[in-house]
Amino acid sequence: MTCRLAPVCFWALLSAWSPQTVAADEWEEDWGSEGAEDQTPRKVPGVAIHGSYENQLTGLALRAHGGGAKSAVLDSNRLRVDLEAKLSGGIEVRAAAVAQIFAGQTRVALRDLIPAETLDALIFEDARWSAVLADVYTYEDLYRIQDAYAVIPVGSAVLTLGKQPLGQGAGYVWNPTDPFTSKDIFDPTYEKPGVIALRATLPVFENVFIDAIAAPGDLEDWTAGGRLNIKAGPLTLAGVFYATRDAATDLESSLDAASGALEAGGDLADAVQTVEAKKVMAGGELIADILGARLWLEGAYNFIEDLAGARGDYAEIVAGFEYFFPFETHLMVEALYYGAGAEQKGGFYTFGQWSQVLEGETKMLGRSFLFESLDHPVGDFWTLGLGSFQSISDGSAAIMADATYAFAQDAELWLLATIGLGEPADFFGSSYGQAWARLKLYF
Amino acid sequence: MLRTPFRLLGAIVVIAALGGSGLCRAASNDASAILAKADKAGLAKSSRMKVVQTIHTPSGDVREFKILSYSQGGNEKSLTEYVAPNQVRGMKILTLNDGDDIWSYFPRTNRTRKIASSARNRRVQGSDFTYDDMATGKLAAQWTGKMAGTETIEGHTCQKLLVAPTKKGPRSYKKAIMWIDSADYALRRIDYYDEDGDLQKRLVLGEYKKIGGVLVPHGYTMTNLSDGGRTTMKIVAAQVNVDLPEDLFSSASLGK
Question: I need a labelling partner for A80 at 20 to 30 A (CA). Which of A101, A301, B68, B143 fits?
Answer without folding.
Answer: B68
